[in-house]
Task: structure prediction
Amino acid sequence: MDPLTHNPAQRHERTRSPIMREIEIPPIGLAGALHVPSGARSLVVFAHGSGSSRFSSRNRAVANALNDRRIGTLLFDLLTSQEETSRANVFNIDLLAERLVDAVRFVDHEPSLSRLSLGLFGASTGAAAALVASARLEERIDAIVSRGGRPDLAGDVLDQIRMPTLLIVGGADFGVIELNEQAFARLRGPKALEIVPGASHLFPEPGALEAVIEHATRWFERYLLGMSAAPPAQ
Result:
């Protein structure tokens, strides 16, 4: 997938009116928050990590930054409250990926959203779910970003990923750095690995989350909006 020819902006339309509402994603009614600014040409669906939800302060900070750049966002709960009580569900990557697929199907059945280019943003185990879901959705996903993710949990799917993928990991997140490096080597499309100096797994350090936001927004602008940017680091 050549970054010069991969230009979703050439084949997707803008939204005419802003959208901001709470939603329920079928078939089981997963709760979500949809925010699409007026004039948006793209939408990013978020997959949170274990122990988190659509109310994740870190994901919401990233979502707000994307909204400021006229990129729509969908944050939703991947599990019901009853499902969350089982630790096995929290780490069931196949189940989480299927919930992401359900969210994308919801988007594609909404006339105001179906022609937007789509990105996935995954954190922790949500990153693996995003990668697995993107493989199932084939050409529908245009870009992926992982924050402090466990892409290694995507397993053999890593060898199938050809859409632009950015892995962001903290420089003090020892162990996870190595897992991201191993996963990075297996990705087949445009890719970059950004290590935020001094940051731990949740990026609580001063300036760490801001660095995540900058990396993520630039990636999505490049591959969802077709905006020029520096070539991805290999």
